[in-house]
Write a structure and sequence with these properties.
Length: about 80
């Protein structure tokens, strides 16, 4: 948006979404939805899959920052 000198309001209008929805996405208060990925892909001439892949990688990375310590490997369980 910055390189194109577009405001959040104008970009939201161009994408056909509310300013609030775009602002929440930009400010990391919501994840990228398939709908938003499709809209961004159409606007930028890229694929929705590439946007969804980026979101998936970010989501996985965030989860990996807090790996649960209370999970027991199933291979250690014995069935009686």
């Amino acid at each position: 948006m910055k390189p194109l000198n577009l405001s959040v309001t104008k970009t939201a209008q161009l994408l056909g979404v509310s300013r609030k929805a775009l602002s929440e996405f930009i400010n990391e208060k919501s994840s990228l939805s398939p709908d938003m990925a499709l809209r961004i892909s159409i606007a930028t001439g890229t694929s929705a899959e590439s946007w969804m892949n980026m979101q998936q990688k970010l989501t996985r990375w965030l989860v990996e920052q807090n790996v649960p310590t209370n999970v027991v490997p199933l291979s250690l369980c014995r069935v009686n």
